[in-house]
Every structure is written in structure tokens, then in C-alpha cells.
Amino acid sequence: MKIRIAFFDSGIGGLSVLHRALKILPHEKFIFFADEDHVPYGTKSREEVLNFTDSAFKFLTSRNVKAIVVACNTATSAAVREMRARYSIPIIGMEPAVKKALELFPRQKILVIATPITIHGDKLHQLIDRYDSEHRTELLALPKLVDFAERQEFASIAVKKYLEDQFAAFNFENFGAIVLGCTHFNYFKDVLREILPSRMKFVDGSDGTINELIRQLGTNLIIGGSDSNSDSQVEFYFSERPVVESKDLNRIKKFLERLDSMEKIE
Ligand code: DGL
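That is the input. Now the predicted structure with D-glutamic acid docked in place:
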């Protein structure tokens, strides 16, 4: 029987989606695959990302998982279409939550921040063409945030300065929201909150992605049952290596703890 649901990301960004899944689906069991050997994806070529994603899919499908959530906007942009053609299990991709932000803030502008692959990819431009007839969306690639997140540098002077420099060209007067279009960016909500006007709200695609997972799995989901919070609820892999050393497990724990505090910031 297929038991686990896989979450895949280039690195620890996807933990922000898993973090929500653990709350919404507490009785499910998961595999979390962070491609730590190849992170970051967003500054590499689309072909490289396609190959890394395919290797991860080969590994995950060999573990007999019941679905794969691509908890990475970049891999979704570069590879999800090909993965759907190559693999027959349910595949849930992730796109910047542009539609949600436009609907929630019907008269204001929105800023989408993501990696260069996502910002320049056709997928995002098609999404914007489809839903933003009034041209209310602005785009900004923030490639350095992924490296900062991977080395657990979140609210440092360097991070703040980087963001201030990148935002310097924007006049945020008419902006209602910022879309976190990369799963690594959820770790920076406190520093972003300090820099951006309080009127600008955060919008991300985690809950939408999990709702789509629930829709696709339907009766294959565990709705009730035994207590879930056992140690084995999530099997972690860094690339194809099981994460077993306490220093690595502690690193993951620290990320999840930071996500607990970021979740409260609006
Ligand atoms: N976390 C990923 C995303 O959502 C990509 C980060 C990267 O490796 O560049 O886009």
C-alpha cells in the first residue's frame, strides 16, 4: 500500500509547505526531500533544474509514495510539465499566488518576489496574462535570499541591506500585498515586515497547494485515526541520503521553529 506523501524542494524552503501540511493533515505520513547537493535552483539553467527534478522524482517514485508535492516554485516552473508527462502519480505543483493576491486586493498593486527562473519563466507570465488584465502586478527576482536561508541567516544586517537595496526602486504607495513566490522566502517575514509598509500583506501559496493535494488524493487521504505525532511522521532526505545525524535533524528542527514564529506575522 502507498503510505507516504512526498514533498520535494531544492532545499529547506519546502519545509514551509510541509509545516502547513503537518497542521492540516496531521494523520498523514510524509517524505521530505531537500536537494541540498544542488541548491539553489533559481540561478541555474532550466535544463539543469529539469534534470535535478527528474532524479528526485526517480528516487521518490521508487519509494512508492502516493503523491509528489513540488514544494518549489522554481522546479514547478522549469519541470512540472515534463514530470507530469513522465510519471503517472499525482503531482501537485506550486505557483506564486498571484490570482489569490489579485482577488484579495482588487484595487491595489501587488509585488511578486521569487527566484530568477520563476520570474522570467513563461509559466508566471501566462498566469499574469490570464488574471491580471489591469496590469497591477510587479515582479522582482531575489536570488540571494535562498542562500541566506540555507545558511540560517535571516534577520541580519546583510539581509536587511540586500532587501532595502532591491526595494529601493519601488514606490509602495499603491501596493496592497507581497506574494512570496519562493518557498524559501517564508523565513524572512519578520525582516520584510520591518521594511515594507504595514498595509502590504503577505500572500503565499502553501495552503492552496495543500488544498489541491487534498482534492487530488480524495479518498486516499487519512482523515482520522491514530495519533500522528510520532517521530516517523516525516522521513527526511538530503538529496538521496536519509537524514539521521542529530546535527542535521537539529538544523531541520530550527527551521521548523522559525516557521512557527513566522506564521503569526501577517
Ligand atoms: N524554494 C524554491 C522555490 O520555491 C527555490 C529556491 C532555489 O533553489 O532557488 O522557488
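The first helix runs from residue 15 to 24.
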